[in-house]
Design goal:
Blueprint (H helix, E strand, L loop, with lengths): L9 E2 L2 H7 L8 E4 L3 E2 L3 E4 L8 E4 L4 E3 L5 E3 L5 E3 L8 E2 L5 E4 L4 E4 L10 E2 L12 E2 L10 E2 L7 H4 L6 H10 L11
Parallel strand pairs: 9-12
Antiparallel strand pairs: 1-3, 2-4, 5-11, 6-8, 7-8, 10-11, 13-14
């Protein structure tokens, strides 16, 4: 696995990028490249059963907080250095990113070709680059800024990393900060 993994934000020739692509986890998942900005996605290369460990997360490196990193403790972010950097967000996620065990786990039954997505606030207290959510889930959060900005009721619907659970407990049950108070 490379020391750093470059995620191309804007793709103008998806076919050329695909030809140069070398999967980090062959047989488990692959990147579907799409032209434009932030349009590529990670999809399953096979079926996975709910609660199945899809892969162990290894080869990570510490890095400064930015949109490609994952928060793994109160003050540490890591670069995934693999295809996992293409896990997109969903308010109805197909996977859980367990940063305590460093595992990617199926949150529901997944079929070959299904997008692999996780709920970003499950590991992120405050996002480096908040964004509007268009996932279309029935209980979509609409704005993804991090767990800090969501109600305890919302966060209770998801698997959350232990550092997020601790921060939510310290914050208290009804102390979600409104986006305008940021």
């Amino acid at each position: 696995m490379p020391a750093t993994y470059v995620k191309e934000d804007t793709i103008t020739d998806a076919e050329a990028v695909k030809k140069a692509y070398k999967p980090s986890h062959p047989g488990l998942f692959e990147i579907v490249y799409a032209e434009g900005s932030f349009n590529s996605q990670l999809v399953a290369s096979k079926d996975f059963n709910k609660d199945e460990v899809i892969c162990v997360i290894e080869g990570t490196t510490p890095g400064p907080k930015k949109y490609t990193t994952v928060q793994v403790s109160r003050d540490l972010h890591i670069e995934l250095n693999s295809d996992l950097v293409f896990l997109n967000h969903s308010c109805d996620p197909s996977v859980s990113l367990d940063t305590d065990k460093m595992q990617l786990i199926a949150a529901k039954d997944i079929k070959k070709g299904d997008p692999l997505t996780f709920f970003y606030p499950s590991s992120e207290w405050e996002m480096d680059q908040p964004f509007p959510c268009w996932c279309g889930a029935q209980k979509c959060s609409k704005s993804i800024q991090g767990a800090k900005f969501l109600s305890t009721e919302t966060m209770d619907r998801y698997f959350v990393a232990s550092h997020i659970a601790e921060l939510l407990k310290e914050r208290g049950p009804d102390a979600a900060v409104a986006p305008s108070q940021k």
